[in-house]
Amino acid sequence: MRRIGLIDVDGTGHFPNIALMKLSAFHKRNGDVVEWYAPLFSGHFDTVYLSKVFSFTPDYEFPIDADEIIKGGSGYCISLENGKEIFDKSKNKNLPYEIEHIFPDYSIYPELTKDTAFGFLTRGCPRGCEFCIVGEKEGLCSIKVANLSEFWNGQRKIVLCDPNILACKDWRELLQQLIDSGAEIDFNQGLDIRLMTKEKALLLNQIKIKEIHFAWDRYGDKEKILPKLKLFASITAQNPNAHKAIVYTIVNFDTTIEQDLDRIYTLRELGYWPYIMIYDKEHCKRVYKDLQRWVNNRVIFAKCSKFEDYKH
Fold first, then answer.
1. Is residue 307 domain-resident?
2. What is the pLDDT of residues 183-240, one digit of tens each?
3. Is residue 40, in this structure, part of any structural domain at all?
4. Residue 121: inside a domain, yes or no?
5. 72-123 tens-digit pLDDT
6. CA-CA distance, 185 to 160, in Å (whole number)?
7. Could you tell me which of 19, 26, 52, 24 has the C-alpha nearest to residue 36?
């Protein structure tokens, strides 16, 4: 029996670390003792795992008393060069197959995972957006990596972290699994509205979704995106339980403020809530933070129709 320590380096308190839940399940199945690592009080461990998702999170700063220290996660593979995130493949560590496909140990996050399942049905994305590491990390093809039963066993809610499930060739099967679950589904990444079809929209409208998310990242995709947004809105209008959709809108990357405002006003006219995401928020101009505060506060955005009026 070995003593295993876990460190959630991000430690946001809002989202569980899926890799650590799987590592915990694997070691417990093998008879090991698994604990959260606490400096000064924990004593000696055989192995301590550190997992970090976000590059901006500072690394763990305390000494670790262990025979083996293993670090993993996207946060350890990303560096910022000339204002852009660079992914270093040589530092990327994937979980072994038997750990990647084990049922997660939700007990290590009792409050965050209460009646909620977390996981991926697909990995990869064909878009290769410059501001996103998914293409480099997971590949430029969306592929099925799991069935829902691999991380869900009847919880009332399911949080999906898939980067582009609609691009997967198995999308019909996977969306049907979500329908059949009867659970409330949270697609926490923006669904690719450019891939929307009538069939996909009809299936999505059979899923219990509190709030659906799309994304309008490239301003140049306007002519592709608008017809798809209108298509989805027309089908959603027939669903009495539908909620207003959110559209993630990245700014401070390759658009002007005028183009940003055009996207914001257009989305509001179509009945969607824009949601501003600032690229490199730490070094952006003040105007982008003002824009984010105006749009993302729904009460203010609903009452103040123009950005110019908000600034004054």
1. no
2. 999 999 989 999 999 999 999 999 999 889 999 999 999 999 999 999 999 998 877 6
3. yes
4. no
5. 999 999 876 766 678 888 888 899 999 999 999 999 999 999 999 999 999 9
6. 7
7. 24
E strand segments, the chain: 3-8, 33-36, 45-51, 66-72, 78-81, 84-87, 116-119, 122-123, 143-144, 157-160, 184-187, 208-209, 213-215, 246-251, 273-278
Q: Angle 257-269/222-236 helices, nearest 10 degrees?
A: 20
- Single out the residue of 262, 122, 106 nearest to residue 192, CA to CA: 122
User: Helix axis angle, 286-296 relative to 257-269, nearest 10°?
Assistant: 10
Query: 240 CB contacts (<8 Å, ≥6 apart)?
Result: none
Q: Is 4 helix (H, G, I), strand (E, B) or coil?
A: strand
Does 65 reside within a domain? yes
Number of domains in the chain: 1
Range of the domain at 83: 1-109
